[in-house]
Amino acid sequence: MIIHLKLADYVEMVRHAKSVAPVEDCGLLGGTIDGGEKHVERVFFLTNTDHSPEHFSLDPQEQFAVVKELRAQGWQLLGNWHSHPATPSRPSEEDKRLAFDSTASYFILSLAGGEPVLNSFHVDKEKKVTKEDLRIH
Question: How far apart are CA 116 and CA 109, in angstroms?
Answer without folding.
Answer: 7
